[in-house]
Amino acid sequence: CLALKAWRAAAPEKSAAREEARRRAEDLASVRPTAVNLRWALDRMLRALEAALEKGMPLWDFLEAEATRIHEEDRAMCAAIGRHGAALLRDGDVVLTHCNAGSLATAGIGTALAPIYEAVRLGRRVRVISDETRPLLQGARLTAFELREAGVPVTVICDAAAASALAAGQANAVIVGADRIAANGDFANKVGTLGVAVLAKEFGVPFYCAAPSSTVDVATRDGRAIPIEERAAEEVTRGWGRQTAPDGVKVFNPAFDVTPAKYVTAFITERGILRPPFGESLAKAVVRARDF
């Protein structure tokens, strides 16, 4: 997207091109302030822009090449997350997941769904319980759709039913994605993830977070420093074109919540399974990822 915007801008002067690209990068980053991967990718694109300007090369060629590299790296990282995560799943396991972190959200087979896809590819009979994920129903609309299309058995439940499912032993593991992971292992994901993490801890179900190392923000000390965007009240009161709450009521509609590291059994990354203490294991993974 940034490559296309820069190409269309076609600013003749270096300084003008830099300013235009930075402005457009900020516009894109502002759409998802909680997520750190978008900023990571935009920073890479800006570095590619700088290299193109210094070498006097066509902007489009350099930016398109960098965008393609990011895309292919993401595919490879998803596959690696799948390989590492599949080792945690046995034949007959049932995985509960929240929101969508599969092929519809990445360049590859996803993050949270990657271990499931890989386990199924290896011949293991793995089933999925997908929270509907209110208020926009990413679990019901996206996760359930792609799993069904892939031939993976999936059951959709109301978010409020997660407690009943975990209490009844209907899931052997929980795997979710992440939009940002703090240096200490706290992480932000779709709102409702924290509740699932607390429930998993209470009922003794392993809780895994699957994400590439680019999701780790070492500059964010802990979850308290992660910005949480709030979205329009209408998502709750008039979702899908139908009024679901009376006029005049106040609405609290955060798009994400923060799960403390104490609820996380392990992180599944392209560099392997990371276990506590997360301050150490995450830092090492970030350093090693530079050579991925």
Account of the 3D structure:
This protein has helices at 2-9, 14-31, 37-55, 59-86, 114-121, 138-149, 162-167, 193-202, 234-237, 278-289, and strands at 94-97, 127-131, 154-157, 173-176, 180-182, 187-190, 207-210, 216-217, 256-259, 266-269, 272-274. It has 292 residues and is an alpha/beta fold. The chain has 2 domains: 2-77, no CATH class; 87-289, Rossmann fold (3-Layer(aba) Sandwich), CATH 3.40.50.10470. A hairpin with a 4-residue loop joins strand 5 and strand 6 (187-190). Helix 1 runs antiparallel to helix 2 (14-31), helix 3 (37-55) runs antiparallel to helix 4 (59-86) and helix 4 (59-86) packs across helix 5. The two termini are 24 Å apart. The model has no long low-confidence stretch (mean pLDDT 92).
Notable features of this structure?
alpha/beta, 2 domains, 43% helix, globular, Rossmann fold, four-stranded mixed sheet
Terminal CA distance = 24 Å
* SSE class: alpha/beta
Specify the oligomeric state. Answer: single chain
Order of SSEs, N→C?
A: HHHHEHEHEHEEEHEEHEEEH
Mean pLDDT: 92
Secondary structure tally, helices:
10
Q: What percent of residues adopt helix (DSSP H or I)?
A: 40-55%
Widest beta sheet: strand line-up:
3-2-1-4-7-10-11
Approximate shape: globular
* Biggest sheet character: 7 strands, mixed
